[in-house]
Each structure stands twice: as C-alpha cells, then as structure tokens.
Design goal:
- By secondary structure, the protein is α+β, with helices and mostly antiparallel strands.
- Helices cover 36% and strands 15% of the residues.
- It has one domain.
- The protein starts with a helix and ends in a 17-residue tail after the last strand.
- The model has no long low-confidence stretch (mean pLDDT 94).
C-alpha cells in the first residue's frame, strides 16, 4: 500500500511540475504561476525545470512534493521562490 501511495504522490508532483513548465503564466492577465510544496514552500518555473528529477522522484516530506499550482493574480505582496529566492 505504501508504494501505491508513493507512486500517486510522484505522479501528481510530476503532473503539477509539467503544467507549470508548460504554462508559466495564467490567462487572462499573464500573471506568473508557481507551485506549492507539501511543506508550504513556493517553487518558481525555473526551479521546477532545474529540479525536475527531484520533483518527479519525491518521497514526500523532502520539500519537493508539489501539491498545487497558483498564480500571482490575487496576491498583493511579492512572492519569492523558496529555492532560488527570485521574485515570482
């Protein structure tokens, strides 16, 4: 059972990673998109692409399991990538 849960987590993380890389901006508006990890971290498109292997082979709780994609459309503050510290 544990291996099935891990496989689902990895597939979801890969799907989110691929979605962010393929479409880094939301439409309409062209707002930047970013991924959120299972630990609440924020990952930019560049880091998702650079760390594709770690994201795709996550085991959960390691900081690389992606759980959602959001955009900066409804955010009033600057958001920084937790991996490279760049502004999203």
């Amino acid at each position: 059972m544990e291996s099935i849960r891990l496989r689902k987590l990895q597939l979801k993380s890969r799907h989110i990673r691929d979605s962010l890389i393929k479409e880094p901006y939301c439409w309409p508006g062209g707002y930047a998109r970013f991924a959120i990890t299972d630990e609440g971290g924020i990952i930019c498109k560049a880091c998702a692409k650079k760390e594709a292997y770690l994201i795709g082979h996550t085991y959960g709780g390691d900081g690389w399991a992606l759980v959602a994609v959001e955009s900066t459309a409804n955010v009033d503050i600057e958001i920084y990538c937790d991996h490279c510290s760049s502004i999203i």
